[in-house]
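ok trying this again, last paste got cut off
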Amino acid sequence: MKIEQLIEARYEQMNPSEHLIWKYISHHREQCIQMTLHQLADACQVSHTTVLRFLQSLGIDGYREFKLLLKMEAQDTAPVDDTVIQKSCFNLNRTVKLIEQTDCSALFEKMDNASNLYIYGSGSVQKSAAKMLKSYFIMAGKVFYVIEGSDERQMALRTVRPGDVIFLISISGNNIQMNTFAKQMKKIGRVCSLNLSGWCKRVSDIM
């Protein structure tokens, strides 16, 4: 989903500071891609926490995802570069080979034995990935419960059973709500966990 669509969805609820931030971003997209969080805050004459709250209100998982969205939208309007296509194909092939070489049997066994499967994406990009993952596994006869927000998180905490599997998707790994939810699940101590961070890091490096 484009940033304009996220803005349109809650434009009437935005406060003056948020309108000011959006006005600056909409007129300085290319500059914002290169700016740090503090530089953008200074340019908008607000605090960096105000900028972060504004992004979170749009469903964007922090400043890193915001810049990623800007870059993706800029690429959508840029002329097609054959070298970019070739690089993307190369990276996809490397990713497929990495997946083929990775032993996910422990994860699949946990999924087969789980009563429920949950998936939670902390931002708009991650939520899209969560829904995509859900659609893929439906074809394999596995149904994920997609956690959309705070109400669903609280419901999951109440209904999770021993051995349930929960996927948490985050670009930065520093989302406060995501990490709090993960700690709450760990505190319950009834949910199977499998550390795939090393594998995910390698995929991230390739892409």
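PB: full thing came through this time. The chain has a mean pLDDT of 81.
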